[in-house]
Amino acid sequence: PQARFDILGDRVTAVLPTGESVEVLLTGATVLSWKGAVDGGAAEERLWLSEAAILDGSKAVRGGIPVVFPVFGKSPADLATSKLPQHGLARTSRWEFLGRSTSESDASSKASTNGVQLDFGLTWSAADPALKALWPFDFALLYRVTLDPGSLTTSIVVTNNETEKAFDFQVLLHTYFSVGDITQVNVDGLGGAPYSDKLEAFKVKTQAEGKVDFTSATDRIYQPEGGATQVLTIAEGGLPKYSVSRDNLPDVVVWNPWADKTKDIDDFAPKDGYKNMLCVEPGSVSGWQTLEPGDAFEGAQSITLL
Ligand code: BG6
Predict the structure, then answer these.
(1) Which terminus in the chain has less CB density within 10 A, N or C?
(2) How far is residue 235 CA from its own chain's centroid?
(3) Cβ atoms of 147 and 51 closer than 8 Å
(4) Gap between the Cα atoms of 154 and 174, Å rounded
């Protein structure tokens, strides 16, 4: 059996014979939905999406997996990214769907279901005109969303197409995980890691050993030792739910706005929806990647259901 693909308006979907699916909005190449199954079970939604998310391209999507580029958060005033809005220009630009592919079945493999890949592209010339004027560098982004039974991988390649100019950038995959009850959730793999606490003016702290749990607003930029090698595990009620592995994305932002902060986020609904989400965001954001003309950078996250 083969996967089904569908392009309807500004959405691209792929459905595996297992019933697992992924849906991507051309605005931001934002993954809106990932329905994944564990060991032949029922496919369930794994990403959180706000009921008030704006999907017409006028704003970044509140939920799913927005792509942050070329700046994370608000840019420092003295850098080339200074005029860009928070989290940059990619998440509100309309991307191009470049095509799909199905991995061919390998005769030696016992897997009965093949995965699918959806490719999206954004170049400087095609970026939102109002935004690209604020950051004049000839970049190209290639974003590949791979759905396999029980896992989702998203990878990004950033290329500098300038002939003379280098540019500096940050990149992050802003994954909103769906959880049942945030107070029962913890993240393993960040114990002992230094982090910058955005809720205390970026104060640098060290995570206690053990797991990170959640009892109030959390907004931290972790720099785990070993860079991207550390696999993270998100568990709920003591049961491992998601593993997150990273390629070339050394930092991990962990964000939950809790009740107090969601009040100020217009497109966050329902207001108690913070109980059902956790952002764990692999990225390269604590410093800057410099890309020389003609050079490329690649980073990826791979989420496996446990
Ligand atoms: C997180 C940041 O990655 O994104 C938070 O660490 C921020 O500080 C959050 O509030 C959401 O950002 P935005 O721009 O989508 O509201």
Answers:
(1) N
(2) 19
(3) no
(4) 11
**0.90 surpassed by complex ipTM:** yes
Given a cut of 70, the residues of the chain with pLDDT beneath it are 104-112
256 - beta bridge partners? 218
Q: Is 87 a catalytic residue?
A: no
Q: Write down the catalytic residue from 23, 162, 236, 281.
A: 281
Q: Which residues contact 267 (CB under 8 A, 6 or more apart)?
A: 50, 52, 53, 54, 59, 62
Give the pLDDT confidence score for residue 278 in this predicted structure: 99
Which among 20, 162, 174, 236 is annotated as catalytic?
174
Pocket of ligand 1 (CB under 6 A): 60, 73, 86-87, 174, 198, 219, 253, 255, 281
Which atom from ligand 1 is nearest to the alpha carbon of 221? 6
The widest CA-to-CA distance across the chain, in whole angstroms, is 56
Four-point Cα dihedral 246, 247, 253, 255, nearest 10: -40
Both structure tokens of 189: 């793999």
Q: Which of 86, 173, 266 to mutate to test the pocket of ligand 1 (most atoms within 8 A of CB)?
A: 86
The domains of the chain, with CATH numbers, are 4-305 (2.70.98.10)
In the reported structure, the alpha carbon of residue 179 is separated from the centroid of ligand 1 by a whole-number distance in angstroms of 18
Which amino acid, 194?
Answer: P
For residue 44, give both structure tokens.
């369930």
Ligand 1 geometric centre to CA of 194 (Å): 20
Looking at this protein, which amino acid is placed at residue 230?
Q
The answer to whether the beta carbons of residues 21 and 15 sit under 8 Å apart is: yes
**Ligand 1 centroid to residue 178 C-alpha, Å:** 17
Closest CA to 299 of 229, 226, 246, 251: 246
CA of 73 to the centre of ligand 1 (A): 7
User: Which tens digit of pLDDT belongs to each residue from 179-206?
Assistant: 999 999 999 999 999 999 999 999 999 9
Average pLDDT for the chain: 96
| Other Cβ atoms closer than 10 A to 224 | 21
